[in-house]
Amino acid sequence: MIKFNTPAKNIIYLFCICLISCNGFSQGLAEKANDFLNSLTPKLRAEAFAPFENERRTTFHYVPMDRPGPTFHDFDVKQKDAALVLLKASLSQHGYEKTTDIMQLENILYMIENNTTESPVGKNYRDPLNYHFTVFGQPSDTGNWGWKIEGHHVSYSFTSAAGKIISSTPSFMGSNPAIVPTSAQKGKEVLKEETDLGFTLINSFSPDQLKKARFSEKAPQEIMTGNQRKAEGLSPMGIMYSEMNESQQNTFTDLINVFLSNYEEHFAKVFKKKIENAGWDQVSFAWAG
Question: What's the CA gap between 165 and 146, in Å, rounded?
Answer without folding.
Answer: 9
